[in-house]
Amino acid sequence: MHFNLHIKLDKKKLFRYGALFLAGLAVLVGAEAGVLYYLNNVYLHENDHYQVTRLSSSSSQSQKHHALTLSSAAQDISVSHDGNYLAYLENGTIQIADMTSGQLTTVPAQKNRVVSYFKWVYDHDRLIIVEKNTPGSGSADDSVSSSSGTKSSRSSSSDDYFAEFYSFDMSDKSIQLVRDYMNDNDVRISLNSASDSITDMDMSTETVVTYLKITSSAGRSRLWEANITVRNAALSDLPTHNIGKIQSLKSSDGLLYEDSDTGHVYLYSAKKETSTIFSVNGQKDLRLLGFDQSDNQYFGIVQNNLVTSIAYGNPLTQTWQTISLPVPTDPAAILVAYNGTVYVNDPSAYTMKELADGKATAYTGSVAGIYDSGFYTLDSGVVTDHPVSTAASSGVSSAASGSTASGTPSAAASSSKGSISLSVASATSERYKSSSASSK
Predict the structure, then answer these.
(1) Could you tell me if 251 and 231 are in contact, meaning their C-beta atoms sit under 8 angstroms apart?
(2) What are the tens digits of pLDDT across the range 274-310?
(3) How far is Cα 30 from Cα 18, in angstroms, rounded to an integer?
(4) Cβ-contact 363, 352 below 8 angstroms
(5) Which residues, in sequence order, are CB contacts of 55 under 8 Å at separation 6+?
(6) Whole-prediction pTM value?
(7) Alpha-carbon Rg of the chain, whole angstroms?
């Protein structure tokens, strides 16, 4: 009997210790889930960069887009990657046009702020908005601590001017102030004066890092890194204050930026906090042209300020494919869509050419923006869609369904994220099969 009692006591202890262990595990899992939920659903809604639904663009390519009439006050048109949404600024307020339904959504500035910049996230129907504060407006949130017990990422109370991020999601029409919830900090960008403006921005939803270009009224520019997991601060010791285009790496926390004085491109390492001159196959006179969904970065090889060829690939591995251009081209005329389609715009001839097959589309007015399977133009206040049949030439749809551009089935393209990304890379190479072979 004594033996049986001992067994019963051990079972009770085991049950109690097991319950305590499970409770502790639940707390840890809950905390981790909370952090992941914030990263995935609040800060840029990071998701799988190579989702099959994103790569299969047949629905967006066949989607009919409405024409849009703008008032004379409309400016700064930004087109979403699938072409379904256009955002623009009108009298200080952002308007978003659903080009599939014709509906218009108004996104007013928050807390008496001033909209300084906005841009669609490259793989979401989500708009990132940067708004500057207006000192003296009476907004209580302009103080160093936006609420009692809440810290600010600003360096001191003497910072009277700053900007903040907002994220607007078209799926539920919600707007979110981007904050560092893990450290209970406001994600604020310090400005030197009220005349400072954000003039460029690029981000990675994979690394949750955003870079901004801030330009003063005198034309001097500087760069800012907003990385909620590491730092929120200006980039120091930059080699230039005349910065051109910026382009963030998508799978690592680095940044490419142009030096408009020398024509060089610099690669900034967030880990080392240093900038080094970047080269492609020994060429240092470069221009940033864009990136695609396979994390290829596109560079223009420049002679006499004109692009003579295009190199695309991974800047970290230095593996490149090159595309020779028929004639030297203005870098501003070369446009890269998220699915890897390269357009060449000829504004004097009013034609947009898809580089892979040379097909030209005529238009009137001026090009307002490109998307994966077409482009928009603005003519006498009317925005018009120009769909381009890029599905067959780009290979994006076939890659998503398990084939490369040549029609050869890829290995288990739908079975893993890595396989899909390789399929798209193969399709991009096949699309420009007349180009020279990759080099390292």
Answers:
(1) no
(2) 999 999 999 999 999 999 999 899 999 999 999 999 9
(3) 18
(4) yes
(5) 293, 339, 396, 397, 399, 400, 420, 424
(6) 0.74
(7) 25
